[in-house]
Design brief:
alpha/beta; Rossmann fold; 2 domains; 6-stranded parallel sheet; 13 strands; about 20% strand
Amino acid sequence: MGLASIELRAQELVSQANRLYALDAMTTSIFIDGAAGTTGLEIRERLATRRDLTVVQLSDVDRKDAAARARGLNEADIAILCLPDDAAREAVRLITSPDVRIIDASTAHRVAPGWVFGFPEYEPGNYEAIANAKRLTNPGCYSTGFLALIRPLVRARLIPADAPLCANAVSGYSGGGKAMIEEFENKDSPNYVETAVRAYDLTLAHKHVPEMMERGGLTHPPVFAPSVGRYYRGMMVEVPLQLWSLPGVPTTAQMRDALGDTYRGRPFVEVASLAETAALKTLDAEMLKNTNKLKIYVFGNEKTRQARLVAVLDNLGKGASGAAVQSLNIMLGLPETTGLL
């Protein structure tokens, strides 16, 4: 190879290195605080192959170092908090840089003033709000299903804001985090259980109820009856309705039309057709596991004027980490489907 060729090749290599450096410099830095938890791990998996992002991780030692943690939070473009509520509030206090944007996956800020609710599809204008958000709170898994069903119908005045609503739900045990996963999977644990389905929150004080009420525009909290089943991921949230008790006695067709209009064209939320719904005999809570999708069904009996509204989703997908990544994409001006199924 001649000198001229060598010099040309050297110039090409320098130019390539500069392009790579510029590409790296343009990537968005993401710091996940609580990356070792269930939601944090799932978010990391969804971001692992992204070339447009740099995910910053602390070592096991640094995770316990307040200074290192504060530095990680303040040096990121976007901080994603996957923490217990008190720790999430502490993390927000540690962020002093005005440039850092926050996605909080905890319950801590779901009804807090000034925080954008990270459920893009449920309310007109919410995509724009998320795109411009500095402080975003991820919805709870149960409230995602409930609000997907109820909020459009309250907005359309098919369900009054003061309706005495109730909701039933079943989730995979991963929704309870590491402690509940151990209960169902570790036979050597003293807390191991063999139960198939377990009802809980018998005091009617589930932490998702405040956001169900406030974000749903309801006057009263719904009676919420959750349960957990012996399977890892996937959930169903159901709202049964006595249509005869509602003003104007709406039909199931009217409700399905209102929901269909709300979510038409949205890549992750689908309303089942009348034909598909009529053909069903059962529903599987695991049918959308490992996706960021949510599917709505409107079942009804016109003779008794009753309805069952059902949302199926993955509690770790659209109900948690998938929703966080969807909001992250919108905040960055990217297609909301980037890196998601």
